[in-house]
Amino acid sequence: MSSYKGELPGLYWDADKEKYFGIQSRAAARGTDLKYSVENIRKEDKKDRLQKADSARIDKIRKQRVVRRHASALLRTGVERELGSKRTSFYLRNLLPQACMSQVSAKPSQVIARPDASIIRYFDRDPGSKTLYVVQGDNTVKARRIHTNIGPPLPTQNTTEANDFDSSTLNTHSFLPWDDVARTTSTVSSLNCLPVTGALATTTYGSDRPPVVYFNDPERDGPFIGQQFTPPNCTTIWGAAARPTSFSPSPRLANSVAATQTEHLAVAASTRVLLFTHAPTGTWDFRVVVHTVKSDILALDWISRNTIIFGSRDGKIRLHDTRSGGSSHIFTHPYPISKLKRADDDTRLICSGLQDSLFLYDIRSPRLSHHPSASRDYRASNHDYSNPNYFTSQGTNKRKRLDRDTSKSWSQPVLSFTHQNEADLELDIDVHPRLGLLAAAQDTDSGSAIRVSNIWTGKTVKTIKSNWRVLSARKRVGNIRSLKFMEKDGEEDGVDLWACWAGGVSKFAW
């Protein structure tokens, strides 16, 4: 038996008495309760080993843990722990978005005038060639190339002419003629210029003709040449989203075999999600990645390289990983979902819905707004979501007061943005993650056309008023179905806000 002061066989060092004692054998200690018996010594050794191991574990945890100087709420502590090295300063999250939007003109600068006998419903721009693609009317897709310095010079601006815009209508997109690209069999539901191949993806709602997904490359193949898909068992196509090139692959897959597809497009086809892929040979193919859900899928977007998020008419928000099958229900929005956008991180998303609802959700905290176990303590007067005027300042007697069974199943958002959209599924939103800006189109009857908010604080930093009430009846047409942050031509960090405006396309420049 070892001792603590020295290795003396058969002796035990008592730290309290500071002397050695002989260890009694098992036979000598039989029937008696001797303090220095073999059994008691073994128990003491075991107790000492456990105490040393526990002390070492506590010391290790204390060295690895950061102790907050001022303790705050448990929820905030957990969120800041998840942020880690991505924690930003007060200036970046509070002052920078407001400073950026303070220099934006509230008057639109016209890019494309309203065409004769039609309006522009959707638009998108090729990031490489800067060619602008638009949907005129219901089913006509056209393109207009940008004016280059090689061609004839643009006419000088007539600054004395009075019009509704702060600059002349002559610009780099208004000099060249229109090129016909395609004509669909029903109303167009989305228009996407794909970032990798530069191809154009057009989807339709369908009517007496079935809905289709149409791919073409006007830059290489010319007009009316493309590949068309008619998804089976599909009543309508609500929208599509292309995977951005800014998403980097997982670090664990950096040395794996390269993917054979060069482009990915997710399509909301009725109650299913289709994934279209583009092969290096130039052909497109698709597969059903999410089979039938209980309600129509109205919006979808990519939040990471392999993850698609989509929302349905019943307010449910689901996740799908392209490397696996099926989907996962993570959030429940109070009203039908119109648009979904990725925020500044792959765990945060912006959800726009009807009844003036515009929320920011965090996947790391999918909490319910009212816990089911607390149903006995439920009081409608203490629950904000039970107020029929919670999402809008405009009261209405037709809106039904929400009860316990509906409100307790909603997900609690991280932020709520000021928004005005009663019943329009086509009003668009867009997010600029680097500047922390969220641009949302508003209802035409609200007096505001576009509201820009801070995605980190939820505060409104810019409101662009609509002068459609004082315009002529010819210009007072159309909702803002396309709203995009566009990079400025020839500037590395310049950004403009483009929108469908008065039947044409306008921009709000810095």
From TrEMBL:
Keywords assigned by UniProt, alphabetized: Repeat, WD repeat
SMART domains xrefs: WD40
InterPro entries linked to this entry: CUL4-DDB1_E3_ligase_receptor, WD40/YVTN_repeat-like_dom_sf, WD40_rpt
Keyword Membrane attributed: no
Listed Polar residues bias regions: 383-396
Region (Disordered): 370-407
CC annotations in GO: Cul4-RING E3 ubiquitin ligase complex
Transmembrane segments annotated in the record for this chain: none
SUPFAM superfamilies for this protein: Putative isomerase YbhE
Protein name: Uncharacterized protein
Native organism: Neocucurbitaria cava
